[in-house]
Amino acid sequence: MHSTRADALVLMGLALAAAGCASSDPDDLAKSRPSVRAGEFGTQDCFWNSPSLSYEVLDQRNLVVFASGRRDAYHVQVGLSSTGLRFSSQLGFVSSGSRICGYAGDALLVAGFGDTERLPINGVYRLDDTALAGLRGRFGRAPPAEKTQPQPGPGPAVQTVLEEDSAAAPVPEQEP
C-alpha cells in the first residue's frame, strides 16, 4: 500500500510537469528573451587576450568585453547558455593564439562555485558607440551614467564701490 501511494504521487508530479511544459508556448518564451543574430551589432573582429579586460554580462550567452581601458568594446557571443555567467565574479579567455576572435578553440572560462565552465565562443564583434547603445538597448540595459563635471556658474553678485575719500563715508555705530 505504501509503494502504491508513492507511485501515485510520482505519477501526479510527472503529469503536472508534462502539463506545465505543454501549456508553455515556445513563441512566448522566445519573445521574453532578447536574441541577437551574429553580427547584428558591430563587425567581426578580434581583441588581445589580457588580464586587464573588463566586461558587462548581458545574459547567459552574450557579454560586452572592454579592452584598452573601456575605450574599445566587443560583443562576445558564446555557444552554450550558462546561468553561471551572470553571477560569476571572474571570467577568463582561452585561445590557441594571443587574440580572441571566435575561432575554433576560443573559449570563455566562467569561474563558478568550486568549478570552472568552458564555453565555446561563437563570435566576436567590435562595437562603436551606436552599436554598443543598440546592443544594450536590446537587452534592456541603460548605458552607464556619464560623470559630469560641474560647470562654473556666474558666482555671487558682489558690488564694489570704490571711493576716493574714505572719510567721506562715516560708519554708523551700533547700539548695544
Quick structural summary:
With 176 residues, the protein is an alpha+beta fold.
Write the layout of secondary structure elements.
Blueprint: H1 2-23, H2 26-32, E1 43-44, E2 47-48, E3 54-57, E4 62-67, E5 72-78, H3 84-87, E6 91-94, E7 99-100, E8 107-111, E9 116-127, H4 129-138
Antiparallel strand pairs: 1-9, 2-7, 3-4, 4-5, 5-9, 6-8, 8-9
Can you describe what's shown?
The termini are far apart. It is built from 4 helices and 9 strands; from the N terminus they run ααβββββαββββα. It has a domain at 42-137. Strand 4 and strand 5 (72-78) form a beta hairpin. It is α+β, with helices and mostly antiparallel strands and 176 residues long. The longest helix is centred in the first third of the chain and has 22 residues, at 2-23. The strands form 2 sheets. Strands 1, 3, 4, 5, 6, 8 and 9 form a 7-stranded antiparallel sheet that branches. 24% of the residues lie in helices and 25% in strands.
Question: Can you give keywords for this protein?
Answer:
176 residues, alpha+beta, seven-stranded antiparallel beta sheet, two-stranded antiparallel sheet, 4 helices, 9 strands
Rg, Cα atoms, Å: 31 Å
The major sheet is characterized as: 7 strands, antiparallel
Distance between the termini: 103 Å
| Beta-strand segment tally | 9
Poorly predicted runs of 5 or more residues? 8-32
How much of the sequence is in beta strands? 25-35%
Helix content: 10-25%
Total helices: the number is 4
Structural class of the secondary elements?
Answer: alpha+beta
The geometry reads as elongated
**Nearest-integer average pLDDT:** 75
Question: What order do the SSEs take from the amino end to the carboxyl end, as H and E?
Answer: HHEEEEEHEEEEH
